[in-house]
Write a structure and sequence with these properties.
This protein has 431 residues and is mainly beta. 8% of the residues lie in helices and 46% in strands. The chain is built from three helices and 32 strands. The strands form nine sheets. It has a four-stranded antiparallel beta sheet with strand order 3-4-5-6, with no helix packed on it. A four-stranded antiparallel beta sheet has the order 7-8-9-10, with no helix packed on it. Strands 11-12-13-14 form a four-stranded antiparallel beta sheet, with no helix packed on it. Strand 8 and strand 9 form a beta hairpin. It is globular and about 50 Å long. The N and C termini lie far apart (55 Å).
Length: 431
């Protein structure tokens, strides 16, 4: 009898697998996504590194990556899935022959505020007009969407999930609540006590009612970065840490002064990019090199003189690498001269890869893409996974019919470069 039950269970599992493979088709492309994967429910640090405003919601499973991409005016956001083995991107819709154009008919049209997964389902937060911020989940194949919980008032700050707890901002306060829990059970971690109207110690943000938080988690510690105004009126990115067991939040780091790191483009205001691992913050100062600080002792050490390779740039990190994309000053397209009074810098053509001790490992040229694709406005770093660095290419503009009118929209292309070999692979054209 037990043998028969086991055979029946195996047969049922096979049928379900075949059923998923048959129905998971979006726009004619098969969506081959496992129904369940065993992955950690820790906050995915390297997936939180995107420097793109168009593609900054990313999470990883054992088999692939999920993206939320802004396709430009009139095209809305879409969810995508990238299969690691096949290096194939599919719209996460799972509806046969769907055109992915209407939110009432397409599962993939989601403006997600952050993405995460517990290995069995995909989760994201979304602002609902008149209803604040809500968390939704769906199967990894894009079906079975349902509302999970409310996070109260809508806020720009992206919530994160770490070890079964959702950390989010509402009304200028930072809260934690169990995933799937009730908002009334959320505990306030930091911010303004609405009952007493007394701010927490050290709280003096540029907007006292709505401070901007960047949330992070590593092991047993929650971190959050807030732009704080000091007694002298100087604004600084200031890092706080808090144990997951509900202990008191404390100030552990702030953007260093020029006395520590020398002059750089944004001295005393903010740090360009940063990454926390094992009690250490690694950070990049545009125009001022790679650094690290021990969060326990406060010791700050320069890792690499990156300004000798690239005066300006943008960086992403992982537990193994510090990656820097050089920037070029904006120039006049007609005569090549520097544009006066313009501080914006466009993406360059080389990625410099360092180890965590600041040793330069590789200089990866992106010129082959320029030669292949022609008109490229710039590159944007997304994340580093193992030995692969993923980035977005702004390949100019193309015509797209939107609401019956032909318009010029940005043409984005997803690519990756292997850090070891320097090989560049074009994965997907978002348009």
């Amino acid at each position: 009898m037990r043998t028969i039950k086991r055979l029946f269970a195996a047969l049922l599992a096979s049928l379900l697998t075949l059923s998923l493979a048959a129905c998971n088709k979006g726009g004619g492309r098969e969506v081959n996504i496992p129904a369940n994967q065993n992955v950690s429910d820790d906050f995915q640090k390297n997936m939180h590194q995107s420097q793109s405003g168009d593609l900054d919601g990313i999470c990883e499973t054992r088999e692939g990556f999920y993206f939320n991409c802004d396709l430009g005016p009139g095209l809305k956001f879409r969810l995508y899935y990238l299969d690691k083995a096949a290096q194939k991107v599919t719209v996460l819709c799972a509806k046969p022959d769907c055109g992915h154009t209407g939110p009432d008919t397409c599962n993939a049209l989601v403006d997600a505020m952050g993405l995460w997964t517990d290995g069995a389902r995909l989760y994201y937060a979304q602002t609902v007009k008149g209803a604040g911020k809500r968390v939704y989940s769906e199967e990894l194949n894009g079906t079975g969407r349902r509302e999970v919980m409310s996070l109260g008032e809508a806020a720009y700050d992206r919530p994160i999930c770490h070890r079964g707890e959702v950390y989010f901002v509402s009304g200028g306060n930072l809260y934690a609540v169990k995933l799937g829990g009730d908002l009334k059970d959320a505990r306030r971690i930091w911010g303004r006590d609405n009952a007493s109207e007394t701010p927490d110690v050290g709280y003096a943000a540029y907007d006292p009612d709505e401070p901007h938080y960047t949330l992070w988690a590593d092991g047993d510690t929650l971190y959050f970065m807030v732009n704080v105004t000091g007694e002298d009126g100087t604004q600084k990115d200031t890092l706080f840490s808090c144990p997951l067991d509900g202990g008191e939040a404390k100030n552990v780091w702030e953007t260093p002064d020029k006395e520590t790191v020398g002059e750089w483009e944004t001295t005393g205001v903010l740090v360009s990019q940063w990454y926390i691992a094992d009690g250490t913050i690694y950070f990049y100062l545009s125009g001022g090199d790679f650094w690290r600080s021990d969060l326990a002792t406060g010791e700050t050490v320069k890792l690499a003189d990156t300004h000798k390779k690239a005066l300006y740039g943008s960086a992403i990190f992982s537990d193994n690498f510090l990656c820097l994309l050089n920037d070029r000053p904006m120039t006049n397209p007609f005569d090549g001269t520097l544009m006066a009074g313009v501080s914006f810098h466009e993406g360059g053509d080389t990625v410099f890869v360092y180890d965590l001790e600041g040793t330069l490992l590789k200089e990866l040229s992106l010129n082959p893409l320029m030669e292949k694709l022609g008109n490229i406005n710039g590159f944007t770093l997304l994340f580093c996974d193992g030995d692969n660095l993923y980035f977005n290419v702004d390949a100019g503009h193309m015509s797209e019919e939107i609401n019956g009118v032909s318009q010029k929209v940005q043409n984005n292309i997803l690519c990756r470069v292997n850090i070891g070999t320097g090989e560049i692979q074009q994965i997907y054209n978002w348009q």
